[in-house]
Amino acid sequence: MTSTPKYKKTAEAVARLTPQQYHVTQNHGTEPAFTGEHHDNKHTGIYVDVVSGEPLFASFHKFDSGTGWPSFTQPITKAHIKEKLDTSHGMTRMEVRSTHGDSHLGHVFTDGPEASTGLRYCINSAALRFIPIEEMEAEGYAELLSLFDKESKETPTT
Fold first, then answer.
1. Higher pLDDT pick, 97 / 1
2. 132: left (phi > 0), else alpha (psi -120 to 50), else beta?
3. 74 touches 81 (CB < 8 A)
4. With contact defined as beta carbons under 8 Å apart, do 83 and 119 qualify?
């Protein structure tokens, strides 16, 4: 017996995308730097794929890279991210896509904070939907709330 995946790409979800979201997620696009709605977001919560809803990044892994796009040191779980070699635009880099939605999210680079993973997941805001911690349970992400309890215990207070 096979179960239906909890997160998946549907025609209805794709039809709800704004032109910018469609361009980024379905056509391997990039939004202009410093224009995305999540670039300066400092609220606590999670970022999910705008198409499939799969949880991708947590706010406590977000950092200001100065690049103009939301940047994260790591995904919530590698199971929701797939990486693909991208040699477009005369560069060699690693594209980041959502596993179930197959949405283009951005790219991962090895110039992130050395004190953490050393990685910089440079992600388009248009590929993400932010869910504040206060709304995670109502939105169906209650199982991820414990990540924030763990993080708060591990974060030194100053």
1. 97
2. beta
3. no
4. no
The percentage of residues in the chain with a pLDDT greater than 90, rounded to a whole number, is 85
Q: Are 24 and 126 contacting, i.e. CB atoms less than 8 angstroms apart?
A: yes
DSSP β-bridge partners for residue 93? 86
Evaluate if residue 157 carries a pLDDT over 80: no
pTM: 0.90
- The rounded distance, in Å, linking the Cα atoms of 119 and 9 is 27
Residue by residue, DSSP assigns 92-155 as -EEEEEETTT--EEEEEES-S-TTTTS-EEEE-GGGEEEEEGGGTTTTT-GGGHHHHHHHHHHS
- Would you name the residues annotated as active-site residues? 122
What is the DSSP code (8-state) at residue 15?
A: H
Contact 36, 69 (CB under 8 A): yes
Other beta carbons within 10 angstroms of residue 6's beta carbon come to 10
Domains, the chain, ranges and CATH? 11-154 (2.170.150.20)
Report the amino acid identity of residue 84: K
